[in-house]
Amino acid sequence: DCGTAIINGMPLGFANVVKRGAIGVVGASGTGVQEVTCRVDHLGAGISQALGTGGHDLHEEIGGISMLHGLNMLAGDPDTQVIVLISKPPARAVAERILEQASACGKPVVVNFLGADAADIARDRVFPATTLADAADKAVALLDGKPSVTAFGEIIRPEQCHALPATRTDIRGVFAGGTFCYESQLICQQQGFHAASNTPVTGNNKPDDVWRSRGHTLIDMGDDDYTRGKPHPMIDPTLRNQRIAAELSDPQTAVLLFDLVLGYGAAAEPAAELLEILAQHPRDQRPLLVAHVCGTEADPQQRSRQIDALRQAGVMVAECNAQAALWASQIARIQAEKKGEK
Question: How far apart are CA 22 and CA 143, in angstroms?
Answer without folding.
Answer: 8
